[in-house]
């Protein structure tokens, strides 16, 4: 059975990619793997479904990050690696192009069910805090020195998925890796400032409006913010990271689940759910064809925004009732 280290050793041209609208975990893992492959003498290239967000453009000072253009061919490659996702459907049109290429697909991911995705080769651990932690493990397995650029990529991945070490997945491995990354020269303040201190002036207004649209449901145990298409268009123009809405909602006393619903330009609704304690939001989103982790998951609903709100509220209410029944 071919392992991922075997595939990487024997393949020369490797295309790295991830899900649409790549986040810090996806991008950081790509950057780290790019430099690992360079260290092996390979020819990696990063091609994502969407352009790089402004908050992450600091990565370009050491790593070329491209995106697929419908009118341009993909760079030549012998195998592709999906990072932070396991299904080609999450890559939009790029996923179709990779499927049609007939080239081997590998997956590096930490989401539940990733070993059942589209990869012929998997490097998966659902207990890993971030995809970047898995790429870090590959550095050790392949005995490649951790270059400074790769260290920054792993660091970005870890802080993205642990909420800067605030979430319960910030385990001993995370802190041990982070210590090595800082010793390797990662500039923590540069990463933080690049992500959070270059916001568009409209970002404050957008955040305030999003919080004003928040409703407490399920006896105050669910905080739900629904953002319509017009708001989303303004957010896109300001390059506003909608995840910034989630943290204030999670700070409300008594709230166990936060839900951010975003009406997309194709008429679907993207739901992002977070859990503070025992509610398994991965199980909730699985009911809508989504997935993720027990405390952070998402799904795409093919419903009008109001109907999506009602569906998510009903599913969370059912999950809360199930917890109460099991504890009684």
Write the layout of secondary structure elements.
Elements: H1 4-10, E1 13-18, H2 24-39, E2 43-48, E3 65-67, E4 79-83, H3 93-101, E5 105-109, E6 121-124, H4 131-142, H5 148-162, H6 172-183, H7 188-196, H8 203-212, E7 214-217, E8 222-227, H9 229-237, H10 246-250, E9 257-263, E10 269-275, H11 281-286, E11 291-292, E12 296-301, H12 305-327
Parallel strand pairs: 1-2, 1-4, 2-3, 4-5, 5-6, 8-9
Antiparallel strand pairs: 7-8, 9-10, 10-12, 11-12
Helix pairs in contact: 2-4, 2-5, 4-5, 5-6
Explain this structure to me?
The protein is α/β, with parallel strands linked by helices and 328 residues long. The protein has two domains: 4-196, inorganic pyrophosphatase (n-terminal core) (Alpha-Beta Complex); 203-327, Diaminopimelate Epimerase, Chain A, domain 1 (Roll), CATH 3.10.310. It is 41% helix and 19% strand. It has helices spanning 4-10, 24-39, 93-101, 131-142, 148-162, 172-183, 188-196, 203-212, 229-237, 246-250, 281-286, 305-327; strands spanning 13-18, 43-48, 65-67, 79-83, 105-109, 121-124, 214-217, 222-227, 257-263, 269-275, 291-292, 296-301. Strand 11 (291-292) and strand 12 form a beta hairpin. The N and C termini lie far apart (47 Å).
